[in-house]
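FAQ: What does a multi-protein file look like?

Like this. Sequence, then tokens, then the next protein.
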Amino acid sequence: MAGTGLAGGNGAAPDDLVLVGTIERPHGLRGEVVVNPLTDFGDERFVPGATLATSRAGQAPDGATSLRIADVRWHKGRPLVLFDGVETVEAADALRGHGLWIAASARPALEPGLFYETDLVGCRVETMGGPDAAGTTVGTVARIEGAPGASVLVVETPQGEVLVPLADDICRVIDPDARRIVIDPPAGLLELNAPPATPRPLKRGKGRSPQ
């Protein structure tokens, strides 16, 4: 994806907060926790003195609860964080699964052509108009999937989800402020990704359960 890319910082919350990490489990005996970072700027987010809004597992924050980082060290790409007032394994375990959030306005500005995932989710996707026809609405971005450099927009349409590569030659206009993405899909792309009109019967035999 030349010129079109994403920066991490997944999830959204009512008060314009963005999820930057989740607490996985306690580490050691003095209250440290292992944090799973969900941001490309972990070295800026997880530093002593930083205050993060918190929420219980699976819930959005209410903006009233926060934790201040007292100390942090990195191990195998993840921060081991000690929060103020969390001094025992039991206290650390009570934070298991909690989300860690920052204000969207606190995120660093990105270079032109780069976008935060949270700024694209919810955008209306429409096709380009031609000389004699206006563009048509495809649907709304539900989420982003794929590794950096090979990301796709998962677009919710009346017929189901379709996948649109986040590439310059397809996504011609990306305007998060207007909540709008204009695409120029190659012939058959939207039809290729559309679900079948009639559900296909499941085959018996070996397979794997949906993840």
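And here is the next protein:
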Amino acid sequence: MSWWAVDVQSDPAIRDAVGAWLVSQTGQAVEERPDGILVGFAGDAVGAEGLCRLIRSQFEPAVAATPRELGDVDWTTRWRDGIAVRRLGRVTLVPSWLPVPQEADAVIVIDPETAFGTGEHGSTRASLRLLDGLVRPGDLVLDLGSGSGILAIAAVRLGARRAIGIEVDDEAIPVAVRNALRNGVSDRVEFLEGDAADLAPLAGPANLVVSNILRLPNVALLPAITRALVPGGTAIFAGMEVPEKVLFLPELERAGYQPIGEMEDEGWWAVAARRP
């Protein structure tokens, strides 16, 4: 079958939102190239042209979309190419279609399907590395914008007593539930659908909150995250590019948070901060 690609150039500040929109519209995974271009897929030329018109109407003038014909390839699985087993501190990420290494510590078998989160994205990796050094036995961890469930699952693999993922995308919830079941942690991980601003304070008090979303949503969620954390609890904020650091740190300071660690990965930046 001949498929078509839609190459999307977008403002970095809305790239994650554009990617999520593409997934919701096509039901297919989205490729993110090193140059920042997002690639969505359509079954024919008409679908590709229609997708371009839709994305322009949704995000103009912050995006440019161009259709491109592909060869006769099964693109429903081609997106898996290049995704490999990754070791990030104590965590070993294994795509569901690859064998689990014999010698591995906290193994997470992950299949993103239509949800965000494989460990191939710098913001996810930065979050995982910070999480590895901060989660403690007995912790309750909240994962805001949980996507595939990778961070919530990692939290319990690293020793947390329980993790709760909160996700506004209803299509991501079943994916996360299947990943928790695949990893044998369904009894310690649950996923809630809804707005994290409303649900996080109700799900707490948590010892650790991970918010791997975008800078502006992270800023907007600061009051809710403060209410969701125990006094002296820790929050990890990610989903931000390195240049956004100078914009986000003053927001943390105004909210009374004390940064205790940072991580950069392929242009993405994450910070861990202690609640006042």
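Q: Is there any per-entry metadata?
A: Some entries carry free-text notes. For the entry above: The CA atoms of residues 10 and 60 lie 9 Å apart.
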